[in-house]
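> example.struct
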């Protein structure tokens, strides 16, 4: 018994080994292999294959063929080979079948959910795009049909209200003309506005609310009924036509508080960031830095514990508007003591140091022309005469026609032709100092005139003994030439006498302003007229005794 079992195991093992060495294709090609056939009794005779079995065999053969041929290979590999071309043909064929079976678009007619009568259909047509294209303002208004005839005369609106803006570089007259006013109204309005406020004080960008009335004639411009605008920060103007048909100006003053805005704080790591965090306007900070930079070095002379103090002009209107003006005061404090105090003074708007307004001072001169030094003071070989002699000045090379500036305040003692100097100007300054300017192409001042530092006195040229356009700059003291390099001018006090007292009073007034006081609310203005008594109050019984 055990021997028979061992024999059966050997037969099964042999058959399994044979199956292991066959390929998948060979297994499909031999459907009658013993390991794939169903197990039947040895006594049963083999039956002929049925229809289902034959169909299954053909499907297996077709699957094997498709696997062998590989009709859909990866088109990213073996580009250009026969296998790749076969895959491309498969792709084109499948795409052609998909396009051929693409569904057609056709109109599908269906009954409406709600029965539409003729009236409803007309309503639907009126809400389409065509009426809107013909000028209808909504879907419920049909466009004009051929039966509609235009009117011979269209009635005008009795009044027109519009807003006109005064542009930059524009004039008040041109703005009114664009708005549609007639010549007589423009002339009258300009005279009325000029009587209330100068035209140059009306800022560009000002808006004018204009109301135009009816035309006096068919072709005449509309008459002006009224015009309202903001003339100044503290004034509104209205021009209205009265019952008699005459235009009159009406002033509407606006309450304005002009308390200066004072901002103080510690410099810290950055003066700019500290001032911005304190709420200072950007323009005020920039003006403060420019003013202070002339007296101290911002990157070396200021410490983190120092304090800045700035006061700017500030206006607040009763309507809530704010207007920031010029920098009035700039100060720096160290250990509670003022280190620098600058105050705006005079019509020019210059910032003056409080500590030096009543003291004479020596001021270094500036450069008389924008150029570079080509020859210094001292002995040199003359480029034209050819021998060595004293060069009693400094030459600045500059472009022909460049402006020449006075280095300090002074009086013109000579202006004209002067030998080898060509066109020459000589100035006499304070402290016995004089300066000379030679080789000019043109002189811009005359003898006896008083000039200020930085004023143009002439233009660079090449007159006299000169090899090219340049400025020959000389300096004199006691009638003798000196080296112009590093000379200083003795200047008189900037502010003296009554101006000095007014200057100090202005400084004291500004320093009494509390920081942030200008940010408060404006005090209500007391009414000049008593409040009118109500009619109901007049009927109330009066108390007697």
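> example.seq
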């Amino acid at each position: 018994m055990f021997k028979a079992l061992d024999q059966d195991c050997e037969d099964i093992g042999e058959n399994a080994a044979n199956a292991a060495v066959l390929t998948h294709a060979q297994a499909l090609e031999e459907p009658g292999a013993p390991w794939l056939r169903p197990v039947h009794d040895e006594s049963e005779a083999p039956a002929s294959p049925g229809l289902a079995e034959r169909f299954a065999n053909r499907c297996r053969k077709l699957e094997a063929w498709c696997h062998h041929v590989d009709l859909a290979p990866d088109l990213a590999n073996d580009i250009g080979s026969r296998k790749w071309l076969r895959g491309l043909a498969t792709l084109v064929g499948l795409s052609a079948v998909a396009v051929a079976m693409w569904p057609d678009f056709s109109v599908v007619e269906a009954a409406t959910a709600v029965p539409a009568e003729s009236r409803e259909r007309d309503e639907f047509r009126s809400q389409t795009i065509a009426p809107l294209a013909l000028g209808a303002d909504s879907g419920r208004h049909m466009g004009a049909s051929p039966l509609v005839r235009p009117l011979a005369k269209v009635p005008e609106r009795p009044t027109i209200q519009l807003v006109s803006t005064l542009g930059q570089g524009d004039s008040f007259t041109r703005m009114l003309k664009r708005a549609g006013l007639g010549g007589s109204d423009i002339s009258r309005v300009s005279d009325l506005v000029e009587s209330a406020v100068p035209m140059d004080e009306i800022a560009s960008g000002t808006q004018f609310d204009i109301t135009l009335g009816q035309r006096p004639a068919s072709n005449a411009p509309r008459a002006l009924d009224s015009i309202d605008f903001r003339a100044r920060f503290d004034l509104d103007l209205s021009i209205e036509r009265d019952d008699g048909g005459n235009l009159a100006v009406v002033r509407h003053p606006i309450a304005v508080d002009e308390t200066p805005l004072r901002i103080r704080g510690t410099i810290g790591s950055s003066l700019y960031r500290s001032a911005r965090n304190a709420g200072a306007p950007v323009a005020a900070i920039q003006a403060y830095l420019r003013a202070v930079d002339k007296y101290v070095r911002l990157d070396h002379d200021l410490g983190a514990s120092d304090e800045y103090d700035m006061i700017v002009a500030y206006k607040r209107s009763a309507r809530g508007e704010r207007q920031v003006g010029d920098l009035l005061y700039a100060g720096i404090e160290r250990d509670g003591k003022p280190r620098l105090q600058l105050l705006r003074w005079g019509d020019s708007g210059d910032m003056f140091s409080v500590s030096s307004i009543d003291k004479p001072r020596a001021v270094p001169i500036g450069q008389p022309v924008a150029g570079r030094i080509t020859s210094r003071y001292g002995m040199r070989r003359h480029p034209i005469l050819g021998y060595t002699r004293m060069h009693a000045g400094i030459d600045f090379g500059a472009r022909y026609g460049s402006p020449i500036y006075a280095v300090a305040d002074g009086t013109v003692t000579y202006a004209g032709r002067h030998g080898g100097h060509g066109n020459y100007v000589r100035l006499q300054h304070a402290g016995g100092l004089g300066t000379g300017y030679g080789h000019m192409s043109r002189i811009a001042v005359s003898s006896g005139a008083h000039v200020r530092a930085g004023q143009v006195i002439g233009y660079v040229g090449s007159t006299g003994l000169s090899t090219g356009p340049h400025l020959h700059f000389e300096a004199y003291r006691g009638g003798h030439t000196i080296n112009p390099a590093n000379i200083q001018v003795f200047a008189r006090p900037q502010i003296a006498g009554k101006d000095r007292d007014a200057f100090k009073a202005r400084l004291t007034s500004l320093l009494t302003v509390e920081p942030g006081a200008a940010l408060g609310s404006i005090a209500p203005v007391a009414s000049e007229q008593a409040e009118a008594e109500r009619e109901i109050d007049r009927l109330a019984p009066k108390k007697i005794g």
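> remarks
The two ends are 148 Å apart (CA to CA).
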